[in-house]
Amino acid sequence: MSEPRTGRRHLLLGASALGLGALAAPPVLGQARPFAGQTLNGAAFQSTFFEYLRAFFPEFEERTGAKLNFNTQAFPVYNQRTDLELSTRGSALDVINVTFIYSGRWIGAGWLTNLSEFVNDRNRTDPAWDAADFVSGAQSAMQDARGNTYGFAWEAGAMLMAASRADLIDQAGKAMPTTFDELIAACDAVQGKENMSAFVADQLHHWNWIPYLMGHGGKVFRDPPGNLTPELATPQAIRAAGWYAELLSKYGPSGVLSFSDDQAMRTQIAGRANFRTQAITWLVPLAKHADSTVKNTVRYALMPAGPQGNFPGSNSHGLGIPVGSRRKELAWEFIKWALSKEMLNRIVETRGYPSVCRRSVITGEAFKQAMTLNGQDVASLYLQVLELGGRSGYMKYRTVPVFPQVGDTINRGIARIATRQQDAQASMRQAQQDAIQVLQRAGVTLDAN
Amino acid sequence: MATNTALARERRFIQILAVVLAALVMAPFLWLLQMSFKTNAQVFQFPPPLIFTPTLENYEALWTSGFRQSFVNSLVVAGAATIAPMLLGVPAAYALSRWQARIAGTFSLWILVSRMAPPIAFTIPYFLAYRHLELLDTRTGLVIIYMTFNLSLVIWMMRPFFDQLPRALEEAAWIDGATTAQGFFRIILPLSAPGLAATAILCFLFAWNDFFFALILTRTEAMTAPVAVVNFMNYEGWEWGRIAAGGTMVMLPVLLFSLLVRKYLVHGLTGGAVKG
């Protein structure tokens, strides 16, 4: 039996391999537990993603030596608290959720750390992490006008159409609608069948109505984010508002104008309403929720297109670092770990998470399997919508800091028409006036006409 | 005889009307209560079933979640924010009531000023000060805030009660050798019991029901029950059963407290309205 010999050649080879390995690995990972003793304070709104991710937190703590203190709160509670924390440049939080509707305000005010500096620094980020892998539609809300990135998306809401009882549509001899006219025809055909309303939506008209507005050739602002002159009283906007209000009042269940997201989803799950156009997060439960009575009859499709094209809404929420954080390096390690291809693939494989934003994961087998709903490939529909939003930039209106206030005027405008308090023309003129007032109060310069 | 029958009929009509009105007023609470005993699927059944198999799963979920700690926080904070202002404010109200100087009125008005500004005006200063003092997310921080608001309420509620009590009572006690403090504690306070009860309830209610300051100044450790209930509104779906159970639990202590001191409450709220 011969003894293993360590010759000079072996020693040289070993030393070379060690040297190459040290060069290839980012320095921070070269150290053993580089963040030992530090605590990372994070916050986000409650979502299944963070619930799933939490199960892997011990791995991050083991790898870095840091302790994770990550709190999740209800959506409105989180936004209120974080907005205050950021506006006072606090250091209580190191990693936060960059909420879509606040991203313009938070980035514009300089309250978030420029992550492009971290991504472009090889010492901090291994190029294999592949920042370009995030779908452009999801990332557009996380960037400023110069293209700097302030967050990486963990969730994307891509607006699709779902029919909870596609069997009723088949029975009526109709197909899944691809145009606005076909949607009305399909609603006519299934309205009242088996005590179901043909259409349901929640009360956030400033999200649900805009794709219909754009499909009719209208827009919210003249040329966002540079020119925020509202365009709510144009002939196209008036026509779109009247059309959508009619859709709600004629085909919606009673009380539809006050429905929350959840109520609308529950109505579909219970088989009380058929069509809905909404972000995928609210449509997947039709096929997967334990309480769903429509698992075997649900069908998905792209949003129907209007005379001027198809503009399905898309949004995203990301992870970012407050500018006041004192542990930015650790926060970046967390973001890299949480949104790595490996971690996202694990979450998709183990929990079937439906809203990931990395192209390589979306096009992967695990995601396709998780998003094959009632025999239908919904993953490809999801990717199409995200890419559409990223390419054409039509979602820019949604992240301007003043949109929430303008959105309120839109909500009121649609509600006035649907409740027959005003006709479409009068109501949208009122909405236009209200929007102008709101914008002027916010100090926004508007065009004279 | 006919008059008696008409009177009886009228009385019965009024009684039925009272029951109907009470049911209407109570309807939101009763709806919430029955929702708290339903599963999420039952909550969304249409038409809503009036007879169903009740479940305690929502209450069990509250007990095993962070809501339990938030409920304790609410009890501690609201209790302290009632007791402390009462201890400070009641003697202050008595002193102001017996103060003969012309400045006493102006002084009282300044005390009331703290309640005139909208709470939102104090948010940022409180938030910044608390962050500096490390009082964010602490029960102490919340108690201090509620105390500042409740103190003026106590003084303004209790002063008219003391005003209406004849000075001759204290003077008689003093003649009998009682000190000022003894006169206050042994003669005046027992006579002001309805006022004390009504004031304590209002203080408790203010602290118990507050959402705004608890939302802004707490995170996880000192979160109170009203904020914890909102936490059942998840991004991907609301937990309606738990929201209803949490809402019921939030109402429960106030209801019990009010029932216990009901007798004093009515007297306390009307007492002091007419002097003498």
Describe the structure.
Chain A is of the alpha/beta class. Chain A contains 23 helices and 12 strands. Chain A has helices spanning 8-24, 27-30, 48-54, 57-64, 75-87, 100-108, 116-119, 136-139, 166-171, 180-190, 205-208, 210-215, 235-251, 261-269, 280-283, 285-288, 328-338, 341-351, 359-362, 365-370, 378-392, 403-418, 424-441, and strands at 39-45, 67-73, 95-98, 152-163, 197-199, 221-223, 227-230, 273-279, 299-302, 314-320, 372-373, 376-377. In chain A, strands 1, 2, 3, 4, 5, 8, 9 and 10 form an 8-stranded mixed beta sheet that branches. Chain A has a two-stranded antiparallel ribbon with strand order 6-7. In chain A, strand 11 (372-373) and strand 12 form a beta hairpin. The longest helix of chain A is centred in the C-terminal third of the chain and has 18 residues, at 424-441. By secondary structure, chain B is mainly α. Chain B has a single domain (57-270), classed as MetI-like fold, CATH 1.10.3720. Helix content of chain B is 76%, strand content 1%. Chain B has helices at residues 2-35, 40-43, 57-64, 67-98, 103-113, 120-133, 139-164, 167-175, 180-191, 193-209, 212-217, 225-230, 240-260, 262-270; strands spanning 233-234, 237-238. In chain B, strands 1-2 form a two-stranded antiparallel ribbon. Chain B is flat. Chain B starts with a helix and ends in a 6-residue tail after the last helix. The interface between A and B is medium-sized, with 28 and 26 residues. Chain A: Pfam families: SBP_bac_1. Chain A: Belongs to the bacterial solute-binding protein 1 family.
